[in-house]
Structure formats: structure tokens, C-alpha cells
């Protein structure tokens, strides 16, 4: 026994670091780059959607919470752009296929959509975190924890307005 107790959970699923064969590395990097490109577009879409939520939020407190989340999304977009540029030596391209804004039927429906979007983003960023080179993991971890914080805020807003 190593002297540490991990409770009922085993950490055996964490495998020791083994170098990835070159063909797998290239495939993983293509996945990371595609997901980062998607993340840049998603963060921009979220920013615009949250601008709408701010405009219809019923209280100043709610406006401030959503404004803080929107500002984090701007920061994430900038961080993803920097990472993409560092990984490729090129600026990320913009697809120009931005999803058209669809106004939700209500503020509450918008909050629900935002909550689900934050959780989906976390799932995507977890894949990026798994495959990205180690020097970028702290940044991806920061973005991931922000997304969980946002989901918690939107959960609070949903419960408050339900």
C-alpha cells in the first residue's frame, strides 16, 4: 500500500505516460485542431447569444452574472486562437458559416439552452485536454473549469426563474 487512501475510487485508469506512435499523434493533433476551430466559432456564437440574454435579463444581478460569463467566453475565444496559432504557425480560419441567431421563446428557455451549451462545451474541451500537448493543458483546464462555473451559474439562474 502506498500510504494514500483514495476512498472507494481507484486511479488505475490513469495509465503511465507512454509515447504515442507518430501516426496516432498526427491523427490526435488533427482532432485537436478541428475541435479548437469549432470551439472558436462556438465561443463567438455563445458571446452573441449571451448578449441577447443580458438584454432581457430581469434583474441587474442576473445581467451582471451573464455579463461575466460572456466576458469569459471572449477570453476563451482569444485563448483558443492563441493556442491554434502556436500549434500551427497560422491564424485560425473563420468558416463564415456562422449559425444564425435564433431568439429563444423565453428568457427561461434561453437560460436552459445556455446551460446545456456550457455542459456540451465542457465535453468537447475534455477531448482537447486529453490529446493536446502538455504545455497547453493548464490553459485548457482553466477554460474547462470556467465552463463548469458557467453551468453552475446558469443552473442557479434557471432555478431562480423557474
Question: If you had to describe this structure to a student in words, what would you say it looks like?
Answer:
This protein is an all-alpha fold and 162 residues long. The protein has four helices and no strands. Helix 1 runs antiparallel to helix 2, helix 1 packs antiparallel against helix 3 and helix 3 runs antiparallel to helix 4. The longest helix has 35 residues. The chain is elongated, with a radius of gyration of 18 Å.
- Class based on secondary structure composition and strand pairing: mainly alpha
Number of helices: 4
* Largest sheet, strands/sense/barrel: none
What integer is the average pLDDT? 88
The sequence of SSEs as H and E is HHHH
**Measured distance between first and last alpha carbons:** 50 Å
Estimated helix fraction: over 70%
Strand content: under 5%
- Rg value: 18 Å
What form results from the Cα inertia axes? elongated
Low-confidence runs of at least 5 consecutive residues: 1-13
What's the total count of β strands?
Answer: 0
Summary tags:
162 residues, mainly alpha, 4 helices, disordered N terminus
Would you summarize the structure shown here?
The protein is an all-alpha fold and 162 residues long. Helices cover 70% and strands 0% of the residues.
Task: Provide the fold topology.
Layout: H1 22-56, H2 60-88, H3 107-131, H4 137-161
Helix pairs in contact: 1-2, 1-3, 2-4, 3-4
Amino acid at each position: 500500500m502506498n500510504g494514500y487512501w483514495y476512498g472507494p475510487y481507484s486511479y488505475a485508469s490513469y495509465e503511465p505516460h507512454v509515447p504515442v506512435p507518430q501516426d496516432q499523434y498526427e491523427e490526435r493533433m488533427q482532432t485537436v485542431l478541428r475541435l479548437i476551430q469549432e470551439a472558436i466559432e462556438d465561443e463567438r456564437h455563445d458571446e452573441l447569444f449571451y448578449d441577447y440574454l443580458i438584454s432581457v435579463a430581469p434583474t441587474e444581478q442576473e445581467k451582471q452574472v451573464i455579463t461575466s460569463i460572456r466576458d469569459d467566453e471572449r477570453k476563451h475565444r482569444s485563448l483558443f486562437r492563441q493556442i491554434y496559432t502556436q500549434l500551427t504557425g497560422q491564424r485560425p480560419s473563420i468558416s463564415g458559416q456562422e449559425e444564425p441567431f435564433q431568439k429563444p421563446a423565453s428568457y427561461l428557455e434561453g437560460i436552459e439552452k445556455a446551460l446545456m451549451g456550457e455542459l456540451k462545451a465542457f465535453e468537447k474541451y475534455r477531448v482537447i485536454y486529453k490529446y493536446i500537448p502538455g504545455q497547453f493543458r493548464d490553459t485548457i483546464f482553466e477554460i474547462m473549469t470556467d465552463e463548469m462555473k458557467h453551468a453552475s451559474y446558469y443552473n442557479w439562474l434557471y432555478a431562480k426563474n423557474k
